[in-house]
Write a structure and sequence with these properties.
Length: about 375
């Protein structure tokens, strides 16, 4: 009975996975999904699942096309004189299922064909790993050590004088069997930090911030699947930059101007103080509407990027969210200077539907 339940549960999970994966593009662009996020699971609404089954009728009970009647006789609704009544049949329902963030990341990788990242450096973070280190007299048959088992059987037959050199047949018994044993060892694990930077000047409205929030959720989900331990830092800027918590990052709105280099210089300061590029995998994501305070500061941004940030990080991603108040010039300036430079990814995000493609732009290189 237990095996049957496990088999049914596995089948149900497979159906759920298929349903979620089929509609993943829709889920990616829906912000309410993030509101249902737990520590390790997220609740996803899917249509009610109906398992196909046969339905048998009693013999000789008639059916469609059987019995007396004339051509044109209505079927199943009488003569149309009856008044309508409240229905007693169930309607369509949505079923909420919990999907682990790891499963969600796997489906995201499959749907967008994302390569696994190539980590660099080691940090003093450890992970558990089983390592075969010895021999035991007990264990599963899959770990039986055939050479050691043979030697034990040979020794036993020599000692008991049952070994015949003219007919050297060795037959191990239960006491002769030897198995590989293991112990858990601690190994260093690659470590990563994500820094999100966002323009919070007056031209970045709630709609633009919602796009950033949704895209950041999926970026986080993928990178946390790739790394066992990850840190997240948040930087907001208008004319000046400061580090904030997650809540402040997504809900702050200022009315000042925009000096993008202030965010890049703060990110560079945090990397210098806390994250040695030789030991950390560093990912920077900057979102704005493309407005900046003149060419002078754009030149300063390019200098900090080229000389400080890009040599230190795995990936620098700039996402430009379309705004009716922003000029959109900054992404063109970066493209003119860097082009398809190594370690820099540019992506335009005009609306929520573009999030799907922007994520593939950012994560599709496996950096």
């Amino acid at each position: 009975m237990v095996k049957r339940i496990e088999k049914d549960r596995a089948r149900f999970r497979q159906i759920i996975r298929g349903k979620v994966k089929k509609n993943l593009k829709k889920y990616i662009t829906r912000g309410e999904l993030i509101g249902k996020k737990g520590k390790e699971f997220v609740s996803i609404p899917i249509p009610q699942i109906q398992i196909p089954h046969f339905r048998f009728d009693h013999k000789k009970s008639g059916g469609v096309g059987q019995g007396e009647g004339d051509v044109g006789t209505p079927i199943g609704r009488g003569d149309g004189q009856e008044e309508g009544h409240a229905g007693d049949t169930p309607g369509d329902h949505l079923l909420e299922v919990d999907v682990s963030l790891e499963e969600l990341a796997q489906m995201l990788g499959e749907e967008l064909e994302l390569p696994n990242v190539e980590p660099k450096g080691k940090k003093n973070i450890t992970s558990h790993k089983d390592k075969y280190t010895g021999i035991s007299q007990v264990g599963p048959e899959s770990l039986r050590h055939f050479k050691r088992t043979y030697k034990e059987a040979l020794k036993r037959q020599i000692i008991s004088k049952t070994y015949n050199p003219d007919n050297p047949t060795i037959v191990p018994v239960r006491e002769d069997r030897r198995y590989r044993s293991w112990k858990v060892t601690m190994e260093p694990e690659s470590n990563a930090v994500i820094m999100y930077m966002m323009d919070v000047s007056g031209s970045m409205g709630d709609e633009q911030k919602e796009i950033v929030r949704i895209e950041s959720f999926w970026i986080d989900t993928w990178l946390r699947y790739q790394y066992k331990n990850i840190e997240t830092r948040y930087i907001i800027h208008d004319a000046v930059a400061r580090e904030v918590d997650q809540e402040t990052f997504y809900h702050t709105r200022e009315s000042g101007g925009t000096i993008i280099s202030s965010a890049y210089k703060l990110a560079d300061k945090l990397i210098s103080e806390f994250y040695d590029p030789g030991e950390w995998n560093i990912y920077l994501f900057h979102f704005s509407d493309g407005d900046n305070w003149g060419e002078i500061d754009t030149d300063e941004c390019i200098y900090v990027l080229e000389n400080n940030l890009m040599p230190s990080v795995n990936l620098f991603c700039y996402g430009q969210v379309e705004s009716p108040y922003g000029s959109g010039q900054f992404i063109r300036d970066l493209d003119d200077y860097f082009g398809d430079g190594e370690g820099l990814v540019l992506s335009e995000i005009p609306d929520k539907d573009a999030i799907y493609y922007s994520i593939k732009d950012f994560l599709g290189k496996g950096k």
